[in-house]
User: Which sequence fits this backbone?
């Protein structure tokens, strides 16, 4: 109730602010681009519904950034992103493997569990999260809530969309170098090559970075947590005809580091009744456990002792995406998106954080894990009923399987019994899992403006068929003979357990949105998603080998508004949600009986119901020209609705819900110095982010609470230094040198250890960037906002009027009608003999689509002129599309002013 009440109060405040301002002024502010740095709100285009739309007009909770904002905020990985997106949490157990949690939903268990939040690169589910993905990007969007209708893989928590920069008709690019703490050196560059103008365009980009590690291994002398990676991308656009376009994207990433640090933070002293003794204490004694923990605490957070482990982390990834688009007609577009990816990783890691060999995963040769993924999606988009219905239908296929043999050797103490799929001093492979996903979907949005102006209804449905299988070594082994056994005590053929099963479920979405004013959107949404079931590598009985699908039903209300009060421009987006989870997937410590004793394994079960609800805020305000203030906030409350009852095992009551910080907050201030324009744009920025304490453990018996923390980042940017094409930046991250946790190896009930993966310490750096291409100074010159002229008796010839349009729209707004009427009224006194009506557009569609849209805009203006009494014989219609230069603005966001039709008088020279 509190979340809903807060949302209603916020909605009322925004509506009062919006309602008290003239709607015409709202529209004019929305259509004009930023006049000077820090002077106006930026318009953001998103693809949350698989088509280009304005962020403020989409009834979905979204946080979005363009390429410049990503650089200014220092977003280089998923861990950085969580400080700027409400309800987003990132867990990681090494620097190259990062998992999203959004609204408390993510990978809730063992390897092979389906994610609750999926990352997409160029509309394809991406199976790697390294920093090379953030090079030369156009936009980044974080969608909150179930997104299982239009996107390829079902997601219960949300989706993160990353789009690379697309080739253009300009020969241009940039080169950037970075120097920083821990001997950091990085180079990044991109070049855009129009091989054949409008027909064959190429963009090549890449980066390379090295940095010493910030954690010292005192036994080997190695620097852990270092960086050494290469990333590259080739993007080719072919347009053989105006109505057909094919994009091919090749991307590769290679990283070879000393691995990440794992620091011992706790152990199981066997003081909890009914819990098994941790193997650490069993093998080495309580005194050794206490001494190891004391030794780690004495070393501090930036040193560790791995014995003779020599950790390692090598990752190699490549992927190819082919996107074909055919504009069949003005209202029908066919798209096909196909991809292939290959990801391989070799690692050595000590999951316990102690120097003794208790549980070390190593790979002597070959790859520890290797995956291949294939996707194919066919999509048809269109409009009907005089453009009132916008619809999308499609089909999707995905196949993920191991790419050859994977070797993961588990080094354990000779006295440790290793169970079911974990191999002691043996090079047998780990569990091999494969999955196939097939789906059909349809979604449409209908404009109900004929009944209530500004009202729209959206409905979508998807049905997915998944099939998952696993093949896992099944035996027990110390350092003696291998004993074949199947889970549940039955002898397995060739010491291998192989199982597979289908999973299927529908997903749907329903939403009603109301454009209360040109700059205020209200919406209510209901959606349903599901996350496929799967199989446990280890389980105490045959009945628990398989776990079921998780389902979530979401109810959400929200308001998005751009408004102005006493000259201050602001944007406030607020939503409240309620998620009901059934068959919630979670990891539990379950005992395995192995005569003469017992062991404990982590298994995923799906026998719980849960509720997650909260509020989310995302906004910015410009108190005066030059100062930009932005902030995010989220409150999330999650709990299980009752005990988790596991057949043959028992009831688990009062379990904590992990990965949900109750409060998350970030505040950013950027100030542009009021210096002479010839000096360039010099700005200072500070970002403070805070997240409250959270639970990393899944059982009450485990150590898992981590305190909340706050981070402070500072940045100075000097763009267009002395009106040149050089930029310079200085940055400082984690200025207060806060020690905080990003992930945990919580083996409290198995080995008996708890070890943390920590975030980065304080770092400083400088960046230098050179841009080349068309005259950037001319393009970035400030453009004065257009103000419609007052009616006059006689107008000088030639006379020009500008009529602005909404994003991807060709219908006249009420303000546009006034301008056209004005132009027609002044045509007679000016003795006009010819009016040239020129349509422009800024959409990123094909050339054919752009030309048709610009012509429709010109035709809309011409039709209104005819209504005003101008003969059609005196009106000449010209369509420009994107073939002419964009209208320049100060901040580089040129597109909004190109959504226009220009009316020019051709009067007698006499």
Assistant:
């Amino acid at each position: 109730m509190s979340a809903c009440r807060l949302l209603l109060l916020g909605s009322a405040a925004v509506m009062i602010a919006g309602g008290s301002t003239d709607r015409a002024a709202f529209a004019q502010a929305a259509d004009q681009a930023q006049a000077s740095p820090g002077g106006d709100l930026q318009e953001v285009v998103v693809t949350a519904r698989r088509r280009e739309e304005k962020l403020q007009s989409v009834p979905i909770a979204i946080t979005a950034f363009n390429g410049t904002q990503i650089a200014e905020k220092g977003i280089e990985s998923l861990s950085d992103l969580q400080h700027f997106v409400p309800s987003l949490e990132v867990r990681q157990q090494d620097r190259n493997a990062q998992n999203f949690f959004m609204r408390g939903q993510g990978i809730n268990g063992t390897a092979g569990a389906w994610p609750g939040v999926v990352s997409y690169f160029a509309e394809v589910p991406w199976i790697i999260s390294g920093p090379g993905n953030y090079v030369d990007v156009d936009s980044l969007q974080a969608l909150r809530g179930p997104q299982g209708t239009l996107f390829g893989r079902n997601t219960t928590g949300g989706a993160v969309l990353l789009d690379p920069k697309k080739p253009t008709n300009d020969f241009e690019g940039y080169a950037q170098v970075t120097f920083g703490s821990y001997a950091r050196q990085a180079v990044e560059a991109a070049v855009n090559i129009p091989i054949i103008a409008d027909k064959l365009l190429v963009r090549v980009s890449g980066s390379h970075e090295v940095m010493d590690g910030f954690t010292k291994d005192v036994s080997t002398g190695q620097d852990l947590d270092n960086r050494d990676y290469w990333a590259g991308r080739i993007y080719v656009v072919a347009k053989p005809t105006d109505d057909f376009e094919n994009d091919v994207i090749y991307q590769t990433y290679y990283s070879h580091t000393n691995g990440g640090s794992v620091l011992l933070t706790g152990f199981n002293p066997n003081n909890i009744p009914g819990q098994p003794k941790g193997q650490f204490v069993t093998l080495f004694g309580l005194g050794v456990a206490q001494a190891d923990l004391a030794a780690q605490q004495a070393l501090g957070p930036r040193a560790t002792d791995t014995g003779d482990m020599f950790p390692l982390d090598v990752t190699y990834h490549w992927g190819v995406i082919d996107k074909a688009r055919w504009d069949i007609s003005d209202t029908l577009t066919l798209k096909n998106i196909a991809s292939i990816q290959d990801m391989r990783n070799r690692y050595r890691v000590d999951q316990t954080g102690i120097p003794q060999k208790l549980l070390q995963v190593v790979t002597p040769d070959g790859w520890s894990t290797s995956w291949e993924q294939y996707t194919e999606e066919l999509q048809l988009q269109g409009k009907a009923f005089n453009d009132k219905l916008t619809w999308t239908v499609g089909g999707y296929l995905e196949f993920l399987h191991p790419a050859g043999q994977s070797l993961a050797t588990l080094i354990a103490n000779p006295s440790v019994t290793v169970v079911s799929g974990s191999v002691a001093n043996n090079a047998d492979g780990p569990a091999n899992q494969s999955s196939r996903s097939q789906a059909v979907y349809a979604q449409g949005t209908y404009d109900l403006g004929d009944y209530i102006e500004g009202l729209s209804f959206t409905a979508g449905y998807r049905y997915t068929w998944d099939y998952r299988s696993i093949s896992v070594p099944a035996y027990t082994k110390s350092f003696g003979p291998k004993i074949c056994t199947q889970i549940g005590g039955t002898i397995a053929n060739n010491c291998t357990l192989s199982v597979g099963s289908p999973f299927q479920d529908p997903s749907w979405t329903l939403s009603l949105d109301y454009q209360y004013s040109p700059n205020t959107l209200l919406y209510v949404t209901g959606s349903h998603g599901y996350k496929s079931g799967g199989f446990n590598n280890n389980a105490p009985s045959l009945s628990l080998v398989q776990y079921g699908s998780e389902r979530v039903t979401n109810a959400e209300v929200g308001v998005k508004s751009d408004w102005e009060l006493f000259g201050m421009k602001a944007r406030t987006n607020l939503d409240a949600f309620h998620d009901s989870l059934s068959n919630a997937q979670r990891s539990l410590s379950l005992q395995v009986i192995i005569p003469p004793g017992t062991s404990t394994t982590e298994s995923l079960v799906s026998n719980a119901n849960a509720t997650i609800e909260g509020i989310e805020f995302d906004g910015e305000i410009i108190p005066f020209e030059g100062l930009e203030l932005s902030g995010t906030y989220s409150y999330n409350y999650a709990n299980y609705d009752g005990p988790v009852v596991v057949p043959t095992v028992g009831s688990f009551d009062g379990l904590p819900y992990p990965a949900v910080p109750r409060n998350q907050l970030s505040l950013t201030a950027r100030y542009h110095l009021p210096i002479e324009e010839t000096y360039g744009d010099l700005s200072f920025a500070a970002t403070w982010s805070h997240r409250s304490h959270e639970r990393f453990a899944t059982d009450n018996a485990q150590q898992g609470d981590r305190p909340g923390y706050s981070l402070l980042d500072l940045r100075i940017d000097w763009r267009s230094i002395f009106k040149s094409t050089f930029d310079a930046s200085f940055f400082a991250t984690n200025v207060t040198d806060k020690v905080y946790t990003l992930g945990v190896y919580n083996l409290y009930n198995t080995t008996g250890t708890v070890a943390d993966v920590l975030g980065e310490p304080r770092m400083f750096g400088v960046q230098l960037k050179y841009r080349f291409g068309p005259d950037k100074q001319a393009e970035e010159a400030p453009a004065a906002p257009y103000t419609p002229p007052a009616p006059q008796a006689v107008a000088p010839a030639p006379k020009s009027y500008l009529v602005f349009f909404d994003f991807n729209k060709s219908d006249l707004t009420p303000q546009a009608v006034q301008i056209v009427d004005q132009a027609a009224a002044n045509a007679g006194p000016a003795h006009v003999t010819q009016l040239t009506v020129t349509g422009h557009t800024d959409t990123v569609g094909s050339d054919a689509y752009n030309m048709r849209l610009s012509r429709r805009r010109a035709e809309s203006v011409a039709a209104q002129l005819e209504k005003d009494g101008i003969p059609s014989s005196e009106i000449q219609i010209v369509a420009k599309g994107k073939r002419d230069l964009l209208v320049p603005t100060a901040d580089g966001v040129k597109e909004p002013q190109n959504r226009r039709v220009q009316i020019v008088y051709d009067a007698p020279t006499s």
About this structure: The two ends are 73 Å apart (CA to CA). The mean pLDDT is 81.
